[in-house]
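Please review this one:
***
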Amino acid sequence: MDIIGHLAVIEHAGVSGAEVWEDDAVLALFPNLAHCHEWAYGRLRRTIDGPPEDAEPSRTAKLIESHIITDWVIHYGPRLTPQPRRVGWAYREMHQATEAMDRFFDDALKLGIATSDPREHDTREHLERDFGHTSVECALDFKVGSHVADTAREDGLRTSLARLHDLEWARELASGVFAETGGYTKEGDDKLSRTMSEYGEWARSIRHPEDFAALTLCTRYGWGYDRRTVDYVLDFLHTVERGLDKGLADQLVDEVVAAVADPQTMAISR
């Protein structure tokens, strides 16, 4: 799941209400913004495998936990195994994208959308895995995009993310969240600033909530955010969406919502 998918399941699981599309949005998306997945996965493991905590987690910690649970289930399945195994929905369904990957890049080069070929700068195995699982996750967001468009949720999300364009505010957000949760990232300030600025720019430039998914791919390959490029990526992602197995997608959403609502369902012993 991408931006709107993450927020939708957090609301559906009851962790946050409509405010997840407003002030809570930057907290729910914090692992992406601050590149702190390693810490967040470790914290999730301590929560599930360790003794019960004396105190309830803060709202910030719970929103971050909900994000990282979603990531785990999508990639590695509904159980928190000792080691991650690529057996989750994203890897089971990524063939829907990888089978069309060469045509996608070939056409982008012919149209002048891409100025360099990603296949020349990566191994085939890694590129297919990265492109494939990212594409199907982005395409999955289209299941909720039309429900968010032209609503108070879209307006709230735009307003919340637009604040990230103020880099001083974004830096204070990151330092405050890390101080509150004991979190960390191994990435430097430059990368965090660049990512947060991108999200802020997206919030100002999208025409429809589905554009967020296209911009995720554009950023991955250094492509522009112009309308022609975004529409090209959207056309591809809609094709991917039409090929997704509806039963598997519905099962995934149920598994994610159940795990977010009660993380202990992820314990191996259950």
